[in-house]
Amino acid sequence: MNNKNIVIYLLILLLGISVYLNLKDDNSQRKYIEQNIKAEEAFGNQIGELPLFSSACFPTYKQVCTYGECEIITDLGTSFSLLDNLNTDQRTISRCDSNGCDTYDAQYYASGLYENYQAEQPRGFFLKKENKSLVDTETTSYTEVATQGVTTFLYSGYCKDVK
Fold first, then answer.
1. 142: which strand partners?
2. Long-range own/partner contacts, residues 71-80 (CB < 8 A, 24 or more apart)
3. What is the pLDDT of residues 106-126, one digit of tens each?
């Protein structure tokens, strides 16, 4: 075997090891889940005490960014969001967890396939979801961005809409 063939074999071996390690990391980094059981249980335990809502949104993905670095968080906790666009005089957005909800008057804007919600007074978060009236699915998708100091939280998941 000449030196050229040895180099080729070594490169193929290194490439194989690299692909294996990347696939292994990809499988261990898979953080998306289909359903957020913890948040839905917290929601169900408070159902009589919750503010009025037309949609309940549950995160299935969470990422935290601070100082230019982002990290995917596997423990989604019990947080969820409630949206009310039924009362056109006073729409609200609520950020909830197992300890209850903080509810804010909301600005609401529907544009094409999406609904946009944010607190009327700046609170450092906003939420965008698919417009249920325009999609024929049991749940709709959403994305929420929240800030705390210089830390940014990105959530995405599904909303269950009141019929």
1. 129, 157
2. 72/29, 72/31, 73/31, 74/31, 76/33, 76/36, 76/38, 76/39, 77/38, 77/39, 78/38, 78/39, 78/41, 78/42, 79/39, 79/155, 80/36, 80/39, 80/40, 80/42, 80/43, 80/56
3. 999 888 889 999 999 889 999
Tokens of 157: 């998941």
Least confident of 10-14, 48-52, 64-68, 78-82: 10-14
pTM recorded for the entire structure: 0.76
- Residue 120 CA to residue 105 CA, distance in Å, equals 6
**Tens-place pLDDT, residues 34-53:** 778 889 888 888 877 889 89
Nearest partner of 56 among 110, 93, 111, 99, judged by Cα: 93
